[in-house]
Amino acid sequence: MAWSLDPSSPRRDHTIKCTTPSNRSLYSSPVRTYLTILRIPAVRSALVLGLIVRIPMWAASIILTLHVVGHLGRSYGQAGIVIAAATIAVAISGPWRGRLLDQRGLRRSTWPNLIVLTLCWLIAPWVGYWPLIGFVFIAGLFVVPTFSILRQVQVANVPDELRKASLVLDAVLVEISFMIGPVLGVLMAHWWQTPIALLVAELTSVLGCALLWIVNPPLGQSAETRAERHPVRSWLNLRVLAIMAAAGSAVLVLTGTDLSIVAALRALDMSGSIGWMLAIWGAGSAVGGLIYGAQKRHPPLMLLLGLLGATTAAVTIAQDRLWLAVLLFVCGAFCAPTMTAAIDALMREVPLAVRGEAMGWHSSWITAASAIGAPLIGFALDLGGWHLGFITAGTIGVAIAAVGWLLAPGTGASHEVDPTLPSADEVEARALGQG
After folding, report:
1. Rounded to an integer, what distance in angstroms lies between the CA atom of residue 21 and that of residue 143?
2. Helix pair 274-293, 163-191: axis angle to 10 deg
3. Residues 122 and 257 in one domain
4. What's the CA gap between 432 and 328, in Å, rounded?
5. Of 114, 166, 264, 396, which is most buried, counting CB atoms within 10 Å of its CB?
6. Rounded to 5 degrees, what angle do the CA atoms 259, 262, 264 make?
7. Residue 155 and residue 40: Cα distance in Å, rounded?
8. What does DSSP assign to residue 100?
């Protein structure tokens, strides 16, 4: 087997090409699949930076609620208004932040955000309730789109056949950061006064974004690509809308499941089990994601969404704590695969020059879905108890999947290969050669 550099590759580092064709993969197990991904420096640094940014971000979210309720003496409803202001700002700013990322690159588009965020969080912990809403809204408008950036890094630097596995690794680390962050936030609010805790958490997250700015991982876009102009109407077609609707409905299902779990355990007089039952649900997502990512062939997005919805609705048959745990693990197993499939499908459907903007729209869709899902499922819980909560969330997932399948069949099932990327075999051969 002979290896040579391809000087015609548009990538900054020339692509390694194999001159002896082979259909046999150099990796033969899920473990080797993920080790192959972790051998790619850009991906490895993106995953580490993701943890550095996200853990304090989740911590700050819970600290902000405790700050409003405790330090400012307001109600939980008023704390919800503060969180809603941030959520609305993030949803509004997603598309234009992504467009700036496409047109200017990571460093030029994010340094103003770092300045504004630093100023906001140096002042916000020390002001009253109404000014806090204003600072939180401004911070939401200028938040660094780290989720979009880190996923673009993975898509741009991972062999095509390992893209889903790489996105799954990111999804699993998001789950881990979500489990660590809120607990850390509660501890920080206990150890320190909430203004100090909020200041430390938010500025630590900004510091993580600054490290991302310093590292400046490749997004796969050349200067020529950034110069291209693609109006939204040129790429926001029916298939892209179907993908975004699927992603949004998946988040709605997850929001509904979260609320319904709490309602179910309270109704069954098992409130003490809420924490570890949510952990079992999250563990199902992690296991399902890792298995999904390691497969060579992947089911279409709409099928995964339908299975997520169906298994979520099926949780209603649980009669005791054991069956509730088993069914939550099963429906959790389709969470990470569905979200990963939606991101992968979106990246395949849109031009390279608008990936940031497309991810911005994706962020806005899922943020809106979460905002809609909470009151909708809450109304269902009030109307028919925890059973109706699971049924409503699951039915919405199945319905959107069915509509998406009819209007845009095969969405998310594309297996087109990016010719500028080396194969998994080539990545492993290069790593082994360096070793």
Report:
1. 46
2. 160
3. no
4. 41
5. 166
6. 105
7. 12
8. H
Answer positive or negative: Cα dihedral of 209, 213, 215, 220. positive
Compute φ and ψ for 218, nearest 5 degrees: -65, 135
How many angstroms separate the CA atoms of 60 and 125, rounded? 11
Note whether residue 417 is domain-resident: no
42/424 Cα distance (integer angstroms)? 15
Q: What is the pLDDT at residue 418?
A: 47
Crossing angle of helices 76-123 and 194-215, rounded to 10°:
60
Structural domain that includes position 358: 231-411
- Please give the backbone phi and psi of residue 268, each rounded to the nearest 5 degrees, phi first: -90, 10
One DSSP character per residue, 270-335 reads: -GGGHHHHHHHHHHHHHHHHHHHHT-SS---HHHHHHHHHHHHHGGGG--SHHHHHHHHHHHHTTH
Q: What is the domain-level CATH number for residue 260? A: 1.20.1250.20
| Residues in a beta bridge with 4 | 17
CA-based nearest residue to 312, from 329, 296, 300:
329
- State how far the alpha carbon of 234 is from the alpha carbons of 42, 138, 237, 239, 271, in Å: 31, 31, 7, 12, 50
Which string of DSSP letters, residue by residue, matches 349-400?
A: HS-GGGHHHHHHHHHHHHHHHHHHHHHHHHHHHHHHHHHHHHHHHHHHHHHH
Number of separate domains in the chain: 2
Q: Are residues 78 and 188 in the same domain?
A: yes
Q: Are residues 269 and 191 in the same domain?
A: no
Q: Does residue 145 belong to any structural domain of this protein?
A: yes
- Domain co-membership, 141 together with 210: yes
- Read out DSSP for 191-205? HS-HHHHHHHHHHHH
Confidence of residue 283 (pLDDT cuts 50, 70, 90): confident
53, 201 Cβ separation under 8 angstroms: no
pTM above 0.85, yes or no: no
Q: Considering the chain, what is the average pLDDT of its residues? A: 78
- Taking the C-alpha atoms of residue 347 and residue 356, their distance in angstroms, rounded to an integer, is 10
Same domain for 195 and 277: no
Residues 292 and 398 in one domain: yes
* Residue 17, H or E segment: strand 15-18
- Look up residue 18 and give its DSSP letter: E
Query: Over 60: is that where the pLDDT of 435 sits?
Result: no
Could you tell me if 55 and 196 lie in one domain? yes
pLDDT digits (tens, 9 = 90+) for 160-182: 777 778 888 888 888 788 778 87
